[in-house]
Design a protein that fits this description.
This protein has helices at about 5-30, 35-45, 50-65, 65-95, 95-115, 120-135, 140-150, 155-165, 170-185, 185-205, 210-215, 230-255, 260-280, 290-305, 310-325, 325-340, 345-375, 380-400. The protein is mainly α. It has 2 domains: about 35-160 and about 185-220, Growth Hormone, Chain: A, CATH 1.20.1250.20; about 220-410, MFS general substrate transporter like domains (Growth Hormone, Chain: A, Up-down Bundle), CATH 1.20.1250.20. The protein is globular and about 55 Å long.
Length: about 425
């Protein structure tokens, strides 16, 4: 056997061994008590997040005959979500997870039902959209606060990677489901389906034993102070840029293939599949200071290549490449946030991160839409996506020393210390 053949055989053996280790690691992770249940419950509870925007858009447009009106209602909903994220997350430390999630879930379901069933004017739709956004249950912040209490420190980074990967299922399936229901049956039924899944998924999450066992200590600091910590601020900014790039891609794909094209849905699906594969494949790679820069570079290169051609197969291939870096980048953001705060601050930190991502989605969509109109073609949207990702790489490189090195340390949050009363004997 030639030396080249022996080298190739060794490479294949190493790759196969690494793959088996990753599969075994995920299998062991899912066997940890409570992990599989928490992942399934939170994915179900968050499934409406991928449905509600399209459901509201289609319903309000049908009722008013105006996409502009529908856009205003969606904007009000997004503003409500952005404002509520840090606040409802912080409430969980004061009132407990179950109480806050149950309260917000109840109000959100009522708002969605009212949107579906009441005859409203545009201001009424906007008010209820705002209320639905403000009362969006803080499931994401809650579950990522619970995770460090379910697994040991060596399993936390793979768990964040698995979580970031599996959430792509929401963005693959939810838009397809709500579009089929709303267009083939009715927009009222689409919103009712959102409400039903909110109740079912939210109840499953709230009633999970892990939610009752984990108690978040009350934060001693003022609202917003946690986001001023350099790693948390960087994670929020990088999340803004990453999700802004993803939102710009969505605008570009829709502009390339038109609204009703099956190709648009398929291309966005392979984008999500690339993210799913990347997250699972890189889940066990330790996160150093340069991890964010490397992972965002993969995204940037893939997005830059989209501007070469608008052929469906070329776009699919380049977006798979870009997608490979997305879930690993999100997993790194989750780990950076968790490892940089006290346990009592974790939920609020993730609330701010979610707000940054929501603002990024709005900014990415708006800038991409403007550039599509200005250039009279979808290339402007892909340019916007590339620039968002490129700025993310620059930020990750320039401020690399502010990011924690998690290769040789526990990525769990710092424990909260409190004075212990000593009773004299």
């Amino acid at each position: 056997m030639s030396s080249a053949c022996r080298a190739e055989a060794r490479f294949e053996a190493v790759a196969a061994h690494r793959y088996r280790c990753q599969v075994a690691g995920y299998r062991e992770l899912l066997r940890t008590p409570g992990v599989a249940r928490m992942i399934a419950a939170q994915l179900t509870a968050r499934f409406p997040n991928g449905m509600s925007s399209l459901a509201i858009l289609l319903h309000v447009e049908q009722q008013t005959g105006s996409y502009g009106a529908a856009g205003l209602v969606l904007a009000a909903t997004s503003v409500g979500q952005a404002v509520a994220g840090p606040i409802t997350s912080r409430w969980m430390g004061a009132w407990g997870m179950r109480r806050v999630v149950t309260l917000t879930l109840t109000v959100c379901v009522i708002a969605v039902l009212a949107l579906a069933l009441l005859p409203l004017s545009l201001p009424g739709y906007m008010a209820l959209g705002m209320l639905a956004g403000l009362s969006t249950p803080p499931i994401q912040a809650a579950v990522r606060t619970i995770y460090p209490k379910l697994v040991n420190s060596s399993q936390l980074t793979p768990l964040f990677s698995l979580d970031a990967s599996l959430q792509e299922i929401i963005w693959i399936l939810a838009p397809v489901v709500i579009t089929l229901v709303s267009t083939q049956i009715g927009t009222v039924q689409g919103l009712l389906l959102v409400a039903v899944i909110l109740v079912g998924g939210g109840s499953w999450f709230v009633l999970s034993p892990e939610v009752g066992r984990v108690r978040i200590p009350r934060s001693r600091h003022a609202l917003g102070k946690v986001v001023l910590k350099p790693p948390v601020l960087l994670a929020t900014v990088l999340g803004f840029l990453l999700i802004g790039a993803c939102a710009a891609v969505e605008v570009g794909v829709v502009a390339t293939f038109e609204h009703g094209s099956l190709a648009a849905g398929l291309v966005l699906a392979v984008f999500a599949v690339g993210s799913l594969a990347g997250g699972l494949g890189m889940g066990h790679i330790p996160i150093g200071r340069w991890a964010m820069a490397r992972r965002l570079t993969i995204v940037t290169v893939g997005l830059a290549l989209t501007m070469v051609s608008l052929n469906v197969f070329w776009l699919g291939g380049t977006l798979i490449l870009a997608g490979i870096g997305i879930a690993p980048a999100l997993a790194a953001l989750f780990a950076i946030t968790t490892a940089s705060v006290k346990f009592s601050e974790t939920a609020e930190a993730f609330g701010w991160a979610g707000t940054g991502q929501l603002i990024g989605a709005a900014a990415g969509s708006a800038i991409a839409g403007f550039l599509v109109d200005a250039t009279d073609g979808p290339q402007g949207a892909y340019l916007a996506a590339t620039l968002f990702a490129l700025v993310g790489v620059v930020v990750a490189v320039v401020f690399v020393r502010a990011l924690p090195d998690l290769r040789h340390r526990d990525p769990s949050p710092y424990p909260d210390t409190e004075p212990v009363a000593v009773t004299p004997s």
